[in-house]
Every structure is written in C-alpha cells, then in structure tokens.
C-alpha cells in the first residue's frame, strides 16, 4: 500500500532544507520504485502567522493519519516574544505527545571525510557510528509529584520524581533491540542501578526483554562511566539505550563528538514504528533565506524514515551512500567547509546528492 508522509517544513531554514529532502523523495518515487505519497503543511511560527496557533487541529489530524512525518525545524526570534503556549516549539511537544512518540533515535555518525570537525582526535572518532535510543515521554522530566515547596522550618526545597513503569521500559527496550537488529547487534543499556531503584528495575526489564532478541549482545553500563567512555573511546558503542534525562545529556554529548550539527538526523517513534523524522539542529535564523544551510541532516532523516518506519533498507543505504559520495567529491556547505573543498549552496548540495543517487 502507498505510504503516506506528512511533510512539515516549519520556519527559518526549514523550507530550504526540506525542499532538498523532498527532491530526494521525488527521485526515489520516480526512479527507484518507492511507493510513497506526501503532502506538506504549516507548523511552528509559519502556522502561527497564518492561523494564530503553532499547530492546527487539522494538521495534527493529518499527522495522525500519516504513516510518518518529516519535519524541518521550528522557531525564530520573530516568535520569541509570544507567550509560551503559542511558541513554535509547542507544536513539536504536542506532536510528540499526541502521537505517543516515546522512542527517540539519535545517531551520531562522523563521516571519515569530516573527522577534522570533531573536538576529539581524528583517530578516535573517524568513522564513528553510534545510535543513542532515548526514552522521550517518561522518567524524571514527567514524573509526579514535582515542584518547589516550603518546609516546616521555612526553607524551600525543589523536588522531582524519577519514575518508570515496567511497560514504559519494555516498549523502549523493544525499540532499542529492534534498532540493534538492523545494525551490529550490540546494545549497551545505560543506568545508575547502583544508586537508583528505578534504574534497578530498568536493568532487570532490559535483561528480560533481551532474551527475546538472542542475537543481540546486551551489556549494561552506569551513566557516569558511559559519559566517560563516550569521550574516551566512542567507537566501542553500537547502540545505547537509556532513560529520558540520561539520554538528553548523552545524545548531545555524542552529537558534539561529530562536530557537525548540520549532518545529524533523528527519529521519534511510536510503538508501531510510525515516526517523526527531523534534523537535530534548529531553524538557524542567522542563515535563513540565504541558500546556505546544510540539507544533509534532513536528507539523512529521510533515510532513517525509510529504514525504521518502512523497512526500505536498500533505499536507505542508497541515500547514505549518496551522502558519502558527495563528501568524497569534496562538496561542502559553509558549516562543514575546510580549505581546499568545494563550497556549495543548499540547492547545489541537493543537486550533488541527486546526481550521486543516479
Ligand atoms: P540552531 O541549531 O538553529 O543553530 C545553531 C547554529 O548552527 C547557528 O549558527 C546555525 O546557523 C547553525 N546551523 C544549524 N543548522 C544548520 C544547518 N543545517 N546548516 C548550517 N548551519 C546550521 O540553534 P539555535 O540558534 O539555538 O536556535 C534557533 C531557533 O531554532 C530557536 O528558535 C530555537 O528554539 C529553534 N530550535 C528548533 C529546534 C527544532 O525545531 N527541533 C531545535 C533546536 C532549536
């Protein structure tokens, strides 16, 4: 059956980078047998300007009906003065919660051609390919009760609740094990089971679910050691799975190991493999409208969508190989440019990827 994708370009550089990603989709549909149809809609600040809200009920319903969503980025200085409830970023939070996108996949890939962009020594990171699976809708960021209260002695104290139910751990475990099955079949579960009971349960459930995936080698690591290992020897990892807060920190750390924010895609998945795919960067207002933005993170988000939601492994590989080819050919947008390379615009980078796809 034809897969339906909702495309939400958003604000700032969003329409420019998504424009290149949909050119890739068009080419795969026309020339490589991809059975997919997509339609576009407004989200974020551009939706606010048109409809007074960052996400209309109509667009939310379209996202519900779609098999997956491809998003650019939202936000910008124009909308920062408005109250939080109508800020562009609210649209993303609403999409994530309404679509129950609890499984966040954040790859940190450093193409050998860009190894000098990292703050670590090239030999430590060249060819890095780690996938961090972060639980996105639970844990301490959402646990109740929470707040700031005044104790009997008049002193104030802040408190949050770190809680995971077994079913929440089970469903993120399945996302992580399935992702590992598509890769090198090694999964490292990150917790703090020596101190926190909630992660003692996390470890127990991960181990139990692991028995359903005998091909995947499961290991466990405390979060402090995991942070250390990520900057000491990051290539030891294949897939890492962890809760919301640890994942927030570790995935940003891993992304920065690559030094190139314009190269990194991400996915947020529900229990059935439906996902919202987007680059990890924002709307880059400083370069918006100048045809300068790097579209590769968004193009790689399409490849993640094909792999994780639609089982189109061969086409996903094709996109990733095309990206690697254009880097080999020396094409660079400003954010990844180094001396001696060919500086190209957003659309020229899109042209190069389309040529490499052929
Ligand atoms: P940003 O990621 O937009 O930009 C940070 C820096 O990286 C800027 O110098 C920008 O030019 C550069 N950059 C980012 N993406 C690039 C690309 N594809 N090609 C070349 N250079 C790129 O982060 P910010 O400046 O902190 O935020 C700008 C706006 O984006 C804010 O309104 C913020 O709320 C929003 N934002 C949205 C998302 C999202 O939609 N998921 C994520 C982060 C930030």
Automatic annotation (TrEMBL):
Its main location: cytoplasm. Residues 4-353 form the Isopropylmalate dehydrogenase-like domain. Its EC number is 1.1.1.85. InterPro entries: IsoCit/isopropylmalate_DH_CS, IsoPropMal-DH-like_dom, Isopropylmalate_DH. GO terms for molecular function: 3-isopropylmalate dehydrogenase activity; magnesium ion binding; NAD binding. It comes from Kangiella koreensis (strain DSM 16069 / JCM 12317 / KCTC 12182 / SW-125). Belongs to the isocitrate and isopropylmalate dehydrogenases family. LeuB type 1 subfamily. Keywords: Amino-acid biosynthesis, Branched-chain amino acid biosynthesis, Cytoplasm, Leucine biosynthesis, Magnesium, Manganese, Metal-binding, NAD, Oxidoreductase. Catalyzes the oxidation of 3-carboxy-2-hydroxy-4-methylpentanoate (3-isopropylmalate) to 3-carboxy-4-methyl-2-oxopentanoate. The product decarboxylates to 4-methyl-2 oxopentanoate. NAD(+) binds at residues 76-89, 282-294. It catalyses: (2R,3S)-3-isopropylmalate + NAD(+) = 4-methyl-2-oxopentanoate + CO2 + NADH. It holds the Pfam family Iso_dh. Its cofactor is Mg(2+); Mn(2+). SMART domains: Iso_dh (SM01329). This is 3-isopropylmalate dehydrogenase. Pathway: Amino-acid biosynthesis; L-leucine biosynthesis; L-leucine from 3-methyl-2-oxobutanoate: step 3/4. It is found in: Cytoplasm. GO terms for biological process: L-leucine biosynthetic process. Mg(2+) binds at residues 224, 248, 252. The keyword NADP does not apply. The record marks 141, 192 as: Important for catalysis.
């Amino acid at each position: 059956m034809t897969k339906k994708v909702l495309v939400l370009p958003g604000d700032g550089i969003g329409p420019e980078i998504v424009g290149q990603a949909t050119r890739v989709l068009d080419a795969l549909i026309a020339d490589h047998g991809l059975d997919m149809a997509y339609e576009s809609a407004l989200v974020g600040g551009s939706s606010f300007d048109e409809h007074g809200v960052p996400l209309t009920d109509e667009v939310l319903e379209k996202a519900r009906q779609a098999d997956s969503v491809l998003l650019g980025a939202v936000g910008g200085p124009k909308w920062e003065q408005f109250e939080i409830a109508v800020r562009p970023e609210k649209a993303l939070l609403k999409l994530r919660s309404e679509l129950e996108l609890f499984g966040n996949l954040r790859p940190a890939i450093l193409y050998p051609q860009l190894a000098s962009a990292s703050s670590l020594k090239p030999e430590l990171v060249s060819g890095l390919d780690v996938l961090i699976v972060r639980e996105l809708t639970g844990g301490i960021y959402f646990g109740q009760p929470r707040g700031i209260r005044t104790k009997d002695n008049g002193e104030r104290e802040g408190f949050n609740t770190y809680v995971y139910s077994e079913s929440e751990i089970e469903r993120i475990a399945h996302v992580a094990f399935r992702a590992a099955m598509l890769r090198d079949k090694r999964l490292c579960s990150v917790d703090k089971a020596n101190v926190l009971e909630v992660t003692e349960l996390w470890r127990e459930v991960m181990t139990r679910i692991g028995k359903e995936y005998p091909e995947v080698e499961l290991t466990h690591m405390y979060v402090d050691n995991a942070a250390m290992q990520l900057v000491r020897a990051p290539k030891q990892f294949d897939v890492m799975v962890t809760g919301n807060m640890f994942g927030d920190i570790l995935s940003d750390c891993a992304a920065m190991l690559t030094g190139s924010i314009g190269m990194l895609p991400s996915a947020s998945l529900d229990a059935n493999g439906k996902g919202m795919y987007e680059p990890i960067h924002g709307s880059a207002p400083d370069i918006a409208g100048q045809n300068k933005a790097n579209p590769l993170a968004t193009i790689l988000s399409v490849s993640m969508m094909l792999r994780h939601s639609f089982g189109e492994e061969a086409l996903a590989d094709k996109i990733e190989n095309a990206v690697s080819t254009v880097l080999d050919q020396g094409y660079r947008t400003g954010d990844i440019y180094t001396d001696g390379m060919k500086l190209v615009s957003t659309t020229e980078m899109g042209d190069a990827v389309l040529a490499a796809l052929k």
